[in-house]
Structure of Limbic system-associated membrane protein-like:
Amino acid sequence: MTTYHIIEGQYLKINCTAIGPPTPNITWVYITDGSVDIMRQGSGSAVLHIDNIKRYHAGVYECQAKNIPNEDPTTTRTSVTVYYPPEITHLSNDKIIDEGSLIELNCLASGYPLPNIIWSKGSFLQYGSNLRIPRAIRSDAGNFTCTANNSFGTSEHLVKAHIYVTVRYKPSIVQWTKDQIVNETDPLHLTCKADGNPTPNFTWTKSQGSMTLNTTGNEYRIHSVNRSDAGTYTCTAHNEIGSAGKKINVVVQYKPSIFKHLSSTDLSSWSGRQAIIKCTFDGLPTPVITWYKPNDRQTGAKTIANSSQIMVITTNDANYGSYKCKATNIAGSAEQAIIVTQLRKPTIPKLMVVLYTSKDCQYYRG
């Protein structure tokens, strides 16, 4: 059987001739799936002629010659192959996939010769109509291209189609403000940035999540901090897939203060006695406490937690006067004076006797 190869859109012309006698009738028939369609007839010869041939014209054609009634005709067959470029006949819809899930895409194409199908995305290539990625990762998101190609004549023919794959994944914090040390009244600016799909929303909480802060977005600001703003701030990014958070510790430094109601007040002491005076303080960083005697000389002290005390031994007049407690840190200083005065025994009483000698004069004896 002869085979004719022809490109879609061209014309087909095949002449079939037979001789008798008597002159036979010539019939062209198209044989498909066992059925017969009569195409052309003639006496002695017939031409199978198809203008602008289409892919559905491909198949087996039979030329029949017959000149004796009720007898089977003499036949010859020919095959017609029609070349045509690829066409995408089925393509998966765009996909929305959760990270870790299966990506499965399908692309079917018709054409002759049968097209090759190639999937591509960047440097990724895979052959075949079905694309399977067992566990999607976020970098799999994007356009996957299905290319169907074949070759005939002197040319290569191809067609492309695209499927966009969206990979959803829970947020991860990619940038955040490091732990902060700020001075009281300074501004505070905290930020965190997150990657996630869908785009994450943000929640800010303070102190182990017990306080939700009145802010939206990935920034939190305080224009003038005070010591009560110190603590642990948590930025949480969340979407419908999951959440992630980062903790930021904030230390607020403030200058010292001395609590007068918890510190010693001015006092009096007998000579030779001992007295303990103290001052109670606060500040961050913890202040350094320096005690000054009345002569402005420093003296040693006992400091525990936020209280400092010294012992005053009043052995002489130099031990009396103003004692100063000074608290100092990098944010500033505060001081308080405590005055120690001396208690004295009364002097020996002095008596004065008045003697009357007359009405006009007096005599004093003492």
Remarks:
- The chain has four domains: 2-83, 92-169, 177-255, 259-342.
